Amino acid sequence: MTRRQHFSIILILGTLSTVSPFAIDMYLPGFPAIASDLNTSISQVQLSLTVYFIGISVGQLLYGPLLDRFGRKKPLYVGLIIYGLASVGCAMTSSIETLILMRLLQALGGCVGLVAAQALVRDLFPIKDIARVFSLLTLVVAISPMIAPTIGGYATVALGWHSIFIILAIITALMLVAIYYLLPNGRLPDPSISLRPQAVLGSFFTVLREPQFLTYALAGGIATAAPFAYIAGSPDVFMNIYRVSEQEYGWIFAILAIAILAPNQLNHLLLKRFSSEQIVYTTLIYQSVVGAFLVMGTWAGWYGQYGLIAMLFLFLCGQGLTGPNSSALSLAPFEKHGGSAAALMGSLRMGFGALVSGAVSVLHNNTAVPMVGIMLICALSGLVILLFGQRAIHPAGQLEEVRE
């Protein structure tokens, strides 16, 4: 593989991974406009986000076996076409109920990018490079929240919130062309893999019986759900409580995305000296401590707008380390069932994301406490699961330390 091919593959896989994040982040600045235009409340618009997370969680379970059975590209084409058509449907909606339905369909189509990208990393790169490649993918994904809300904010002001979904449909069409011409096939179709419910469930149970997968998929999944609480709660916190504009909110979101981007690059250096296991453990302790101060300070009124942004920045720094390392450790034991493993891991993460975003909506009380409180719970829960799960990983079955 030449350097140019390596770069193009990473870029395409990273872009695939941003399909769903872009659909999440880009319309956040439009929440007040959507609520006003559709004669509904912010909490109802937040439900369209929660439904999107549910769709991603369920959809990934469907695509895992399909990617193993039919190869990587055919399911990709089908899912992205559904995503593009649903995006157009979102742009044409005139009621919150229709928007929620279209968002569900959009999620069911777009989630194929998340599963396929992770499965293709396992297909195209050696095990020792998986954590490094996931860090590079996270770099591309981290750029999404830096630009998506900003684009969404300006598009909402200039063209209306409907234009956001038209832009998403255009991006999808361009991605389909890039996938067809530039992305390798990865693992070939395997006719021996049955799509019968019993066989599919058997593949998932095979994955779940691996202690290393279960430990790091659960710990990493709930820990990386913390940003979903931030994503669900931040439009209300910043635009309704602190009264920032759509454009200003986009810039705040972009600044906080740097919190994930910078540590992600640090991960390359850390992997030369420490194992992925050590990095995940230390990062979860760090986030638990910072999260405790974040909650106490928010509840006590220590932070204004800028103090809250600073504390959120410190907390989110951990995401750039937890995500790629827990992903690498979760998927490394698998070869034949790589698609199913990637689907389960992604489904768990988005399932946790749906739960925490829904909790933020239900606990909404016109303060930032529900948002930051749930972020702390995610970090603490991930740490507890990791501590107990590591005991279940038999030393003889542990994967060799994943280093760069």
UniProtKB/TrEMBL annotation:
Pfam families: MFS_1. It is found in: Cell membrane. Residues 9-393 form the Major facilitator superfamily (MFS) profile domain. It is a multi-pass membrane protein. The keyword Membrane applies. Keywords: Cell membrane, Membrane, Transmembrane, Transmembrane helix, Transport. Gene3D superfamilies: Multidrug resistance protein D. Belongs to the major facilitator superfamily. Bcr/CmlA family. PANTHER family: MAJOR FACILITATOR SUPERFAMILY, POLYAMINE TRANSPORTER 2-RELATED. This is DHA1 family bicyclomycin/chloramphenicol resistance-like MFS transporter. The lineage of its organism: Bacteria, Pseudomonadati, Bacteroidota, Cytophagia, Cytophagales.
